[in-house]
Design goal:
The chain is mostly helical and 222 residues long. 79% of the residues lie in helices and 0% in strands.
């Protein structure tokens, strides 16, 4: 990785530093609310989840969409960079930007469930899967943003990925082999858990690899 590539990746952190910090603090605030009791647990975790999902959407759309609108993309592509280099920088830079709050908030959620005496440890497998889903869902948003410049398609992408959150909670959370252990005193890492986790990892790998085979071959990013 050459100096220019490292500087452009660092640029992503600099431009999104307040968004990263604000989202992290908002998510941590949600976890603090969730620690106050069973009733507030639902409110706090909803705040936590909404923060992660919204942060991913805003991060991708601002960093990629605004470059096209403000014509700063033309300046970036005027640098000694191939189109493939630009895609690689965006994927790595924006993924790292997302990973900072995601890792902190995911660790916070797992820790909260582990240490709170009124929360059953049986929630841990689903919490881990939900964290994995948030990361995979963001990779879909990032991949889609790199492949389309049409506002209509981007809007559809945002709607679909937001709907996926609800579908995941209701469909995966309702799986008998997961749902029946949610209130167990100890976490149960069964085959269903590993299957869902494998699907999330496969989604992550595919969506982060696809831009290198499609978007990187384009000659027009506007």
């Amino acid at each position: 990785m050459n100096m220019l590539t490292r500087k452009l990746i660092a640029k992503e952190f600099y431009l999104n530093r307040w968004l990263i910090a604000g989202s992290t603090l908002a998510g941590l605030a949600g976890l603090l609310i969730a620690a106050e009791g069973e009733v507030r647990f639902n409110i706090g975790m909803l705040t936590w989840l909404t923060t992660i999902v919204a942060f991913g959407v805003v991060l991708a759309m601002l960093s990629i969409g605004n470059e096209r609108k403000e014509r700063t993309l033309q300046f970036v592509l005027s640098l000694p960079l191939a189109h493939g280099d630009y895609v690689r920088i965006k994927v790595i830079g924006l993924l790292l930007c997302f990973l900072v709050p995601w890792a902190i908030l995911s660790a916070g959620a797992v820790t909260l469930i582990s240490v709170m005496p009124n929360l059953p440890d049986g929630l841990l497998p689903f919490a881990v899967l939900l964290c994995g889903f948030c990361l995979a869902n963001y990779s879909v948003v990032l991949c889609g943003a790199l492949h389309t410049a049409t506002e209509g398609l981007i809007t559809i992408l945002i709607i679909v990925t937001n709907m996926n959150v609800t579908l995941f909670i209701f469909m995966v959370g309702a799986l008998p082999s997961l749902n029946s252990h949610l209130r167990a005193p100890a976490p149960v890492w069964n085959s269903t858990f590993w299957t869902v986790l494998a699907v999330e990892l496969a989604t992550l790998v595919i969506t982060l690899s696809l831009p290198y085979f499609v978007a990187a071959r384009r000659r027009d990013f506007n």
